[in-house]
Amino acid sequence: MSKRKTANPSRKRKAISGDELKPDLALQVDQSKDETGARALARKLLQPSFKSAVTASTIAKKTLGDDMELPGIGDYIHCVQTAAKAAEKGDLSMASRMLASQAIALDSLFGELARRAALNLGDYPDASERYGRLALRAQGNCRTTLEALSKLHQPREQTVRHVHVNEGGQAVVADHFHNHAGGAANAETNKQSHATGAAGSGPRCLAKTRKGTACQSPSVKGRKRCRMHGGTNPGAPRGNRNAWKHGARSAGLLDLSQLL
C-alpha cells in the first residue's frame, strides 16, 4: 500500500534577496570603427529588443511597484534577444504561449465587460450598450487570436496554379495542392510551369464592343471571333437561302462590288 506524501506547511519558498538578484543596469553598446559614439547609441536605442525591453520594464514597475527590486534593463534586453533568436531558428513555443495568454486575457475582459453591461441594463441603457459593444469587440479579438494560434499549429494548404498556354492564347489552369507543416519554412521547388507558345501571340477577336473598341480577346481556333462574340457558333451553312430577302448583302454581290 503506497503512502501519499503531504506537503510540509512550515516549508516556504525562498525569497530572492537583493544580493542574489543582481540586476543588470548597464546598457551595452557595440561601436564600430567608422561610427561615432552618438550614432552607436542611437542605433542601440532604435533596436526592437531595446524598445520591447523598455516597455516590459515599465509595465513591471507599474504592476509590482517600488517595494521590491526589479531586473535591470540589460536583463530585459537579454530575455528579448534570446526569444527572438529562438524564433529565428523556428522555435515557435514563445509565440504559442503568447497567443494563448492573450486569448485568455481577452476572454476575461469579455466576461468583465459583459457583467458591467448586464448590471447597467435597467437603469443606464446607454452605458449598458457601450459595455456590450466593448465586450463583443473583445470577443472578436479573442476569436481572431485563437484562429492565429490554430493556424500556427495546423498544416497550411497552399494553392499553386500552373498555367499552360496553348496555341492561340487559350489557357488551361490546373490546381496543385501542397501541404506545409505549421511553423516550418515554405517548401521550395524547381519545377516551373511550361508554356507551349508565347502568351498573347495568337489571333485576336476584332468584334466591336459597347465602348466602340475592338474586343482583343483570344479568338477561337480556326475562327475570327472569340467565344463571347460567336466564335463557338458555326453559323448558317454557306449558300443557305432560308433568310434570303433581296440579296443586296449577299457574298456574291459583295464580291462583285469589290471588283467594280
Structural description of this entry:
With 260 residues, the protein is mainly alpha-helical. Helix content is 43%, strand content 8%. The protein is built from seven helices and two strands, in the order ααααααββα. It has helices spanning 18-21, 37-45, 48-64, 73-88, 93-119, 125-153, 251-259, and strands spanning 156-165, 171-180. Strands 1-2 form a two-stranded antiparallel ribbon. The radius of gyration is 37 Å and the shape is elongated. The relative contact order is 0.05. Mean pLDDT is 76; it is low at 9-13, 182-190 and 192-197.
In short:
43% of the residues lie in helices and 8% in strands.
State the low-pLDDT regions, or none: 9-13, 182-190, 192-197
Q: Cα distance, first to last residue?
A: 120 Å
Helix percent band: 40-55%
**Oligomer kind:** single chain
Strands, count: 2
**How large, in whole angstroms, is the Cα Rg?**
37 Å
pLDDT average, as an integer?
76
| Percent in strands | 5-15%
Total number of helical segments?
7
Principal-axis shape equals elongated
Strand order of the largest sheet: 1-2
Q: Biggest sheet, open or closed, and with what strands and sense? A: 2 strands, antiparallel
Structural class call reads: mainly alpha
SSE run: HHHHHHEEH
